[in-house]
Specification:
two-stranded antiparallel sheet, five-stranded mixed β-sheet, alpha/beta, 184 residues, 7 strands, single chain, 36% helix
Length: 184
C-alpha cells in the first residue's frame, strides 16, 4: 500500500495563527514574557507576501509574520519560520536573515525571527547567519526549536494542556509512521 504524503505545513500554520500566545509560552518562554498578551496580535499576511514575492531562494514559504505589542508598549514584528515539511535546506539561515532585513527595510519595524524545525536530522540546528571580512562583521542570531528533541519528553507532552504539545506529538507520530500507513 502506498503511503499518503503527510501534510505538515497547513496544520502548523493554522495552529500558529490561532494559538500564537500558547506557541510562545510552549517554545519561546523568554520572548513570551515580554509580550503584552492583553492586546490582540495582528497577522501580517499581506506584508509577508510583499517581502517574499520576489524571493531568490525558490523555497515554498511556510513562514508567518505577526505584529504584537510588548509590555513596554512598543510594537514588535515577529517572523516565525516554520520548517516542518522537513527538507534540509542549506540556505535556511540566509533565508531567515533575508526576510528579517527585508521586513526591517520595507516597514522600518524591528523584526524578531524564530524557527521551528521539524526535520529528522539531530545535527541540523541553524541558529545564526553572518559573514565577515577583516574588521567588518554581520551577524543575526535566532532561537530555534527542534521538534525531534521532544521525543524523549513524551510523558511531559501528554500531561501538558498546551495545544502545541498535541501538535508536537502528532508531528512526531506522523514522522515515526512514515511508510507504515496502517499504523498511521
Amino acid at each position: 500500500m502506498t503511503d499518503i504524503l503527510a501534510k505538515y505545513d497547513e496544520p502548523w500554520k493554522e495552529a500558529i495563527r490561532t494559538y500564537l500566545e500558547p506557541l510562545f509560552a510552549f517554545f519561546f518562554a523568554d520572548i513570551h514574557a515580554q509580550i503584552d498578551w492583553s492586546h490582540p496580535y495582528r497577522v501580517l499576511d499581506k506584508e509577508l507576501s510583499e517581502l517574499v514575492g520576489g524571493s531568490e531562494t525558490g523555497t515554498q514559504v511556510s513562514d508567518l509574520l505577526f505584529e504584537v505589542k510588548l509590555l513596554t508598549g512598543q510594537p514588535a514584528w515577529i517572523l516565525i519560520h516554520v520548517e516542518v515539511q522537513s527538507p534540509y535546506e542549506s540556505g535556511f539561515p540566509e533565508r531567515i536573515y533575508r526576510y528579517n532585513y527585508r521586513a526591517f527595510d520595507k516597514y522600518s519595524q524591528p523584526v524578531v525571527s524564530v524557527a521551528i524545525l521539524g526535520d529528522e536530522r539531530p545535527w541540523w540546528r541553524p541558529q545564526s547567519y553572518g559573514y565577515s571580512l577583516g574588521s567588518y562583521r554581520l551577524s543575526l542570531e535566532f532561537p530555534t526549536v527542534k521538534l525531534l528533541d521532544y521525543q524523549q519528553r513524551w510523558p511531559e507532552l501528554e500531561a501538558s494542556s498546551n495545544p502545541f504539545a498535541i501538535m508536537v506529538m502528532a508531528h512526531l507520530k506522523t514522522k515515526a509512521t512514515t511508510g507504515d500507513f496502517p499504523e498511521r
